[in-house]
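Exercise 3.2. Students should predict the tertiary structure of the chain below and write it as structure tokens, then compare their answer with the key that follows.

Predict this chain's 3D structure.
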Amino acid sequence: MFKELKVINSRPAPFQFYTADELWTNDHTSKQLVTVLQQRFT
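Answer key:
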């Protein structure tokens, strides 16, 4: 039963890893994100 619960509660492969830190600490990527957000909300 524990094995089945583990499978049910596991994240799908594309969402398996937390990558938000990498998005905002990488200079190039963070600048791109800010640019896109500014364009979208102005």
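Discussion points: The helical segments are 2-8, 20-25, 27-40. The first helix runs from residue 2 to 8.
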